[in-house]
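Example 5.3 — Flagellar biosynthetic protein FliQ
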Amino acid sequence: MVTPDFVVSFAAEGLKMAILIAAPMLGFGLVVGLVVSVFQAVTSIQEMTLTFIPKILAVMASIFIFFPWMIQMMISYTSKIILNIPMYIR
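Solution (predicted structure tokens):
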């Protein structure tokens, strides 16, 4: 039987997984954004488009670096959910 506690824990686990999957990309984007901002402040270059390209490249690099780990986490989470379906519908 599905109880409110089960639903809350299920949703919390899904949110935790989403945060874990997104963290490397967000972290790389944050670090590169800070570095570019410091560079702009030091050199007095205030070009708005200068921040986008390095961030995009950093996020793409983090996707390529962490893709095997992200896929493994998603496969593990999905298989756990699928294998436990009989327990969920009791």
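Remark. The helical segments are 4-43, 52-83, 85-88.
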